[in-house]
Design brief:
heterodimer; A: mainly alpha; MetI-like fold; B: mainly alpha; disordered N terminus
Chain lengths: 292, 311
């Protein structure tokens, strides 16, 4: 081929190009292997401590007797409260921004604000929760205050992902619905929401999995680290959560506590990866089934 | 948005129940507006709470001392309220994380956008999403049991927990942020640019480094800024990994404390609320909020401009 003639002035061009491709490939391999290394280590450290007893026991001063029952239940309660508040508010805000608000200065202000809130460090939300829910609203240090704080943490993510899901619905669907005499809300409720549901759910699942792993805001508003009961009263009772319990065990100098911390991480990661997998499946079904 | 997406005025159509329906539509509008307003209230709430408590704090401690003092020891006598050591700690961790996350993240983004087959991309992206979803405390754990002994083995003089230790794990934590945003921006570079370059006889390397990456540069920069903001606000991993001694140093092998780790130290301790020592968390929180806000606003501004350019 005569191509080689043109590359005569740059004898290394092809090799350089291939070397660059290889370097980029190695970067990707490194990024992926971080996850593998992470899982490998944690399973290696924690697998032997993991048992049904570990899951159903209370925490203890002795590592060997400790379990994560109160942390697991606390985390479930927290996620429940967070979902209860964040999903309707987040999806509602997304519908407002996509379907109701006309392009205006107000809308771009809200939009910029949400994008910035998504970047606010979670510990700052903890300080907000401490000032707003714990002190001003006197919600004490219970599950409700924790769940509301986590709601604020994940709200921007739910809004942004729901907006994206709504935006993916073609405007012909809206026009057809209006042409049949449907009102705006009828269009949203009967057409847009069912169509965009998989997309919205994907965002919701990923946001809740973020809330599940969040420890910093809970520590700031005062989640306890040593709780030997499950909360009965969502406002007054102390509670702990999985990441907070893991943090507490990791902080201990004894290796025995590090091992049960790893076992706790295995439980946490299993739930998180299951949630992630669900989101991936939803998204793939969505993109395969619906073709406009 | 086109005019067609606006609902017709129902009040003009005389159907039974039309009035009630119009009323219902107004109610829904109001409720949804309230949902959107919560995000604005959240921002106002953050600013008000941080400012009110910080102003109270600055009545007791001079703001000049706070911003320029080189010693931070509010919990020990004699008390010193200079935030520079904490600021320096955050800077040190972030500055150490960036050289890990930026090249690897950008390389991965380029690979996924320019080289990977669709199949490979479909496999890699969920893996990176899982990595992005790994909680901060898990990275903290790895820093304690894995990275810290490693660093100690290489540099025997290092403190057990140190800034470098935190930098390594934070670097890998912020990696997915860089990959996902940079890849989006790289993929939005129009095909015609690449084809024009190929037509001029460029190799794949020339096209990628000479055309695609420069065209996407502003978006890539935005991803760096967002990642750095995330690193600065990173809490649990840094609290576990960096040691927790507030001191003004640029040596990554020493134990340091970041702004976030200090806040955790206070809330976990028994400092009574209402004292100036306790109010430091609001002042430090304000400093943290302002620094990440500047980075975020800048990044969002760049990303909006990038979208306008290619859409």
């Amino acid at each position: 081929m005569s191509v080689s003639k043109y590359s005569e002035g740059r004898p290394y061009a092809k090799i350089a190009s291939q070397a660059f491709a290889l370097a980029c490939g190695l970067c990707t391999l490194l990024s992926v292997s971080v996850l593998v290394l992470l899982l490998w280590n944690i399973f290696g450290f924690g697998w032997s401590s993991l048992s049904w007893d570990f899951v159903t026991s209370w925490p203890s001063r002795f590592a060997a007797k400790s379990g994560i029952w109160s942390a697991l239940i606390g985390s479930l309660y927290l996620i429940g409260v967070t979902a209860l508040f964040s999903v309707p508010i987040g999806v509602g805000a997304a519908i407002y921004l996509e379907e109701y608000a006309p392009p205006s200065r107000w809308r771009s202000l809200v939009q910029i604000n949400i994008a910035n809130l998504a970047g606010v460090p979670s510990i700052v939300y903890g300080i907000l929760g401490l000032g707003l829910f714990v002190r001003m609203m006197h919600l004490n240090r219970g599950v409700l205050a924790g769940g509301l704080t986590l709601t604020l943490v994940v709200l921007p993510i739910i809004i942004l992902s729901s907006q994206e899901a709504l935006r993916a619905v073609p405007s012909t669907i809206r026009q057809a619905s209006y042409a049949l005499g449907a009102t705006r809300w009828q269009t949203i409720w009967h057409q847009l929401l069912p169509i965009s549901l998989p997309g919205i759910l994907t965002g919701v699942i990923l946001s809740l999995s973020r809330a599940l792993g969040e420890a910093a805001p809970l520590v700031v508003i005062g989640a306890a680290t040593f709780v030997r009961f499950t909360p009965k009263n969502l406002i007054t009772d102390d509670y702990t959560a999985l990441p907070v319990q893991i943090f507490n065990w990791t902080e201990q100098p004894q290796v025995a506590f590090h091992e049960i911390a790893a076992a706790g991480i295995i439980v946490l990661l299993t739930v998180l990866i299951a949630m992630n997998a669900l989101a991936v499946i939803l998204r793939q079904r969505f993109s395969k089934k619906v073709r406009w | 948005m086109s005019n067609l997406t606006t609902a017709p005025h129902l009040s003009k159509i005389a159907l039974p129940g039309a009035k009630l329906r119009t009323y219902w539509e107004h109610c829904i509008h109001g409720i949804l507006l309230a949902c959107a307003t919560i995000s604005i209230i959240t921002t106002i709430g953050i600013v008000v709470i941080l400012l009110v408590e910080s102003l109270q704090f600055f009545r007791e401690v001079s703001i000049i001392e706070f911003l320029t003092g080189t010693k931070w020891s509010p919990l020990l006598k004699p008390q010193h309220y200079g935030i520079l050591p904490l600021f320096c700690g955050t800077f040190l961790v972030t500055a150490g994380a960036a050289p890990i996350a930026i090249p690897v993240g950008l390389g991965t983004a380029v690979f996924l956008s320019e080289y990977a087959t669709p199949w490979l991309r479909d496999v890699t992206k969920p893996v990176l999403e899982v990595l992005a979803g790994v909680p901060s405390v898990v990275f903290g754990y790895l820093a304690v049991v894995l990275v810290s002994p490693l660093i100690k083995a290489i540099f025997p003089s290092a403190d057990i927990f140190n800034a470098a230790n935190a930098s390594v794990v934070v670097g890998f934590m912020i990696l997915p942020t860089i990959v996902s945003i940079s890849e989006d921006v790289l993929r939005s570079v129009p095909r015609s640019l690449r084809e024009a370059a190929y037509a001029l006889g460029a190799t794949k390397l020339d096209v990628t480094v000479g055309v695609v990456v420069p065209a996407a540069m502003s978006g890539i920069m935005a991803s760096f800024l967002l990642a750095i903001a995330r690193a600065a606000g990173e809490t649990m991993a840094v609290t576990l990994a960096a040691g927790g001694t507030s001191k003004l140093t640029l040596n990554p092998l020493e134990s340091i404390q970041t702004m976030t780790a200090y806040i955790v130290q206070v809330v976990l301790g028994d400092t009574p609320a209402g004292t100036p020592e306790y109010r430091t968390i609001f002042a430090v929180g304000l400093a943290l909020f302002m620094s990440t806000l500047v980075l975020n606003v800048l990044a969002q501004w760049i990303l909006t401009r990038v979208r306008e350019k290619y859409e």
